[in-house]
Amino acid sequence: MTIERHGQGRQARRRASTRQALIDAARHLLAEGAGAEASIQEITKTADVGFGSFYNHFTSKGELFAAATNQAMEEYGAHIDALTGALTDPAEVMVTSIRLTARLARTHPQIARILLAQGMSHLDVSTGLLPRALRDVNRGVAAGRFSVADPQLAVMVLAGGMLGLLHLQMSGRMRAGPQRTDAFATMMLLALGMSDAEARDVISSTH
Hints:
By secondary structure, this protein is mainly α.
């Protein structure tokens, strides 16, 4: 019985390893701009697994790329949570998150490229960055820091602005240094209903 369980455990680990190799390959291809154009043969070759292994884990390329995108976004969302977890002011959380994401092209280039490749499709997913942004906006409203009639619409404004900023950075058309990032964060706080004085105070206190 012990030998049988050991064999099952080894098989499960090997299966999980193959699945992750496919996801890693999909993340690489998405970041390189291949995405849906990549064939299953190209995916399995990049993953260094057998062609037949693909359908043991995914029913289609779309399912694989969705899993790869969700994993990348959830990974980065968890990273932001870890760095903002000790903050109690929702406005400080928002500014810190904006600063971190504005540096995404430099700190996590693969994730930045995946985010840009998928674009607004992230607005209707249940994991990753957008649900966390909605959570933070709702917390800000509950705490009286933000004043927005429609938090979900506010998150769409934030997402669109951030995607635009990342696009300009990744295309080399803009360098988002500290001053420009703070200016962007100030605009986002104003969009969330904070006064100019309140926004600038938060920007200053989080340096």
